[in-house]
Amino acid sequence: MISSTLTKALNQQIGHELSAHNHYLAIAVYFARRSLDGWAAFFYRQAEEERGHALKIVDFLLDHDVAPFIPAAKEARPNFADAIEAVASAVKAERTVTTQFEAMMAIAHQENDYRAVPLLHWFLNEQIEEEATMGKLHDLVRSGINLFQAQEYLPTPHAGGEEAGDGA
Ligand SMILES: [Fe+2]
Ligand SMILES: [Fe+2]
User: What is the whole-number distance in angstroms between the Cα of residue 115 and the centre of ligand 2?
Assistant: First the structure.
């Protein structure tokens, strides 16, 4: 059993991950509208990763005999002033998610929810990678490089989001 406090927080996090999915989809649309297809493809994949994160939590709750509800995801509009603003919004969002998982790790320790620690640890590691990736992209867009040329330097998304359901 997982404590009710942590169960509630994990359930809310499903909504945050689905909102992150929408946010990345909006960023992908922003780039797709400017024919920056490499950038768009990167953010479409990033959106899929976030959906994977939501499913990973759904699976974890199901394994612990909880039927999670699916929270509403936030609407996301592709109306960024420029590419720097779009990528900066991703950096900010990833930092927020990191604090959400840090708070859940604190709850897990407080409530002796040891079974949730590996899952939360996996997500915290994932956040280190995602913050680093978005930080690098932010530097790239701020460098003033032509965004079409910059597509050569886009990082390959890591496999984090594809592991949904592996019960890590
Ligand atoms: Fe995520
Ligand atoms: Fe993320």
Answer: 23
Which percentage of the chain shows pLDDT scores above 90? 91
Nearest ligand to residue 27 Cα:
2
Ligand sitting nearest the alpha carbon of 133: 2
Contact residues for 163 (Cβ-Cβ < 8 A; gap 6+): 52, 56
Contact 150, 42 (CB under 8 A): no
| Ligand 1 center–CA 121 separation, angstroms | 13
- Return the CATH number of 4-151, one of 1.20.1740.10, 3.10.290.10, 1.20.1260.10, 2.30.30.700: 1.20.1260.10
Judged by its nearest atom, the ligand closest to the C-alpha of residue 51 is 1
pLDDT tens figures, 42-97: 999 999 999 999 999 999 999 999 999 999 999 999 999 999 999 999 999 999 99
